[in-house]
């Protein structure tokens, strides 16, 4: 059984297509749709695979779309445990207007997860946590799920010696941090909300992150800063890594790709300065591809080698 488990409480199948010209009141002819699995933890699992790390993805799935989600993951030979749900898994819709190259993303509400289904997810995670090294909690909460479910998930994982990595936002992020995680990856907006301010400059960002570490909410914080890269903060270090300049096509999936890079780095024994550079390399490589596509491994390798040149001297 893989030593990395990912959790996606709000998965989706992304249906994407292109149309010549999007106009109101007219029939819009679309190209044959493409279907891709989606949702935070599922994307992290797919990205981990590209880096050479196996994981098992846990998610609820129901109805024909839930079935399709599982088929798509099987085609990618990804390991997963799907918890059956009464409600249908949602399908998001993405259409690119080829005349303007603009992308329209329609997100459907998440699929309701009943209390008994939530317990099944928890049971599944408890079973898989035995012997696992990392649990990655990523993405939003679907309707009907209280953030306290995630607090229970974190407690169960920690009791079994599993290191929790969290990439979520709002009350869900607050609930997991209250329990204390190994690593959290907020972006700077999510960190600002936690700190209760509208905007954070570099110093205030470092200070807010430091405070969370000191309060025991996370051992490591990787704060992502979009085109400015990321900053890794622990009790005794602050390491700011600028993003390499790349030709940006779509930033969709950059955050999930970064989390995969961080977890792959940690699980293969890289040093923390190397881990954050690998995370930035994966995030930036993901922005080089159009649409919902994740990164290409050769792009990650090239960007990582470049970023390693800025390793602090003591680790280089
Ligand atoms: N415009 C960009 N140019 C280069 N790298 C980028 C750009 N945008 C994002 N990245 C890379 O991706 C990483 C994660 O991006 P970001 O901070 O936007 O995460 P996020 O807000 O969590 O993203 P998501 O919307 O996927 O959840 C950054 O740390 C950086 O390495
Ligand atoms: Mg994010």
TrEMBL record:
Domain of life: Bacteria
One Pfam entry name: PfkB
A GO MF term: ATP binding
Keyword list, A-Z: ATP-binding, Kinase, Nucleotide-binding, Transferase
PROSITE patterns: PFKB_KINASES_1, PFKB_KINASES_2
SUPFAM superfamilies: Ribokinase-like
Domain Carbohydrate kinase PfkB: 19-293
GO cellular component, one term: cytosol
Family the entry assigns: Belongs to the carbohydrate kinase PfkB family.
Protein name: 1-phosphofructokinase family hexose kinase
Record organism: Hymenobacter rigui
């Amino acid at each position: 059984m893989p030593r990395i488990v990912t959790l996606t409480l709000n998965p989706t199948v992304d249906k994407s297509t292109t149309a010549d010209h999007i106009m109101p009141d007219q029939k819009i002819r679309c190209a044959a749709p493409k279907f891709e699995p989606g949702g935070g933890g599922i994307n992290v699992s797919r990205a981990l695979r590209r880096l050479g790390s196996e994981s098992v993805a846990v998610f609820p799935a129901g109805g024909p779309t839930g079935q399709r989600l599982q088929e798509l993951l099987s085609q990618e030979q990804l390991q997963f445990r799907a918890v059956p749900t009464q409600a249908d898994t949602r399908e998001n819709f993405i259409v690119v207007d080829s005349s303007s190259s603009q992308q329209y993303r329609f997100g459907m509400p998440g699929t309701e997860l009943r209390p008994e289904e939530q317990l099944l997810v928890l049971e599944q995670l408890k079973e898989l946590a035995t012997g696992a090294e990392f649990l990655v909690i990523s993405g939003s909460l679907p309707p009907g799920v209280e953030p306290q479910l995630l607090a229970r998930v974190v407690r169960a994982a920690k009791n079994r010696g599993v290191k929790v990595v969290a990439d979520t936002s709002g009350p869900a992020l607050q609930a997991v941090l209250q329990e204390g995680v190994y690593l959290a990856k907020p972006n700077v907006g999510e960190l600002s909300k936690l700190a209760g301010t509208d905007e954070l400059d570099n110093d205030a960002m470092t200070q807010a992150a430091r405070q969370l570490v000191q309060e025991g909410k996370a051992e490591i914080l990787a704060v992502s800063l979009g085109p400015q890269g990321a900053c890794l903060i622990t009790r005794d270090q602050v390491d700011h890594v600028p993003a390499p300049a790349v030709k940006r096509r779509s930033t969709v999936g950059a955050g999930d790709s970064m989390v995969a890079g961080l977890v792959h780095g940690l699980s293969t024994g890289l040093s923390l300065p190397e881990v954050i550079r690998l995370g930035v390399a994966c995030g930036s490589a993901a922005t080089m591809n159009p649409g919902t596509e994740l990164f290409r491994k050769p792009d990650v390798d090239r960007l990582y080698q470049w970023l390693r040149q800025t390793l602090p001297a003591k680790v280089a």
